[in-house]
Amino acid sequence: MAPRVLVVFAVVPVFAAIFTRHTTGTHLDMQHVHARGAPRELGAEESPITDAYVSKYEVITKWPHKGDAFTQGLAFDEQGTLYESDGIQRRSAVRSINVPNGENIAVTRNSATDFGEGITVIGDKLVQLTWQNNVVHEYSLPSLTKTRSRKLACRGEPGGCKEGWGLAYEPSEGVLYMTDSTDKLFTLDPESLQSRGAARSIVDPRMGRAVYGVNELEWVEGELWGNVFPMYQGTASECIVRINATDASVIGWIDMRGLFGSQRVGVRQQPHNYVLNGIAYHKPSKRLYVTGKSWDHMYHVRVVPDEKVHQSAAHVASICSLGDASGLRG
Ligand SMILES: *[C@@H]1O[C@H](CO)[C@@H](O)[C@H](O)[C@H]1NC(C)=O
Question: What is the pTM of this model?
């Protein structure tokens, strides 16, 4: 009987440790996390890429997020520092975040007329779009010292970009991917900010329709991910879309429903305003963080395939609130 007793004593502390980590974990120390191992429990070493057309999420950890931050962009640098771009005139800024308490490490405010939008990291600089000013700002990292501001050159091109929404840097091709509120995906030269080739419509072949309002973009293991805010189609979505940047076709969807509903009442009462709008992927640890406009929390999430019964275009259409496929704005 003695061996059985030993087994019981050995197993209990392991479950206790996992339970504690899932429910109250607040640390971000990668060394500590890696030293403790157990990738399945931490979700740190698992790729977020699934073969499923529709995936869902599990929350690994949550931390506080500033409730006055109108999140428009979220990105890690190579060292693992997390940056956020916030919108709204007179409230816009870029800042680095001390994740466990949500407080700023460094902050650089935008001018009163700027409305901060998507951000991406290129080496040791942060690039920030603005919404309707056609200006792109650059900051050196990690200090967030502003180094230059340039015109969004694609705005002046025939069929060019309309507004600054999502932005992601793709390191192997060395290009920026950008969205502008429509169904178009723009490929920009990071230096000139001019289009490389014609913009393509983001189309889901299974649904047989274009996807409008793809917003905060993130480059995740060879795919382009974005949350979806079809603002000019009169709706807001709680889905993340996975895009093949080569042909702008939709690979799949992630059902993020439930996170928005976990925010405070003032946020929950405005589902068209305080949408999910931040996706950051830290490639070395394969960690995926998400948050939203004025949300109370920042989340470390794991992506998992949804049930087989949910693997259909009809299911996506029923849960993702993608709005009128014809669009209300040309
Ligand atoms: C992306 O599209 C290209 C061109 O259609 C195709 O060759 C490639 O396999 C696609 N990649 C994925 C991940 O679907």
Answer: 0.87
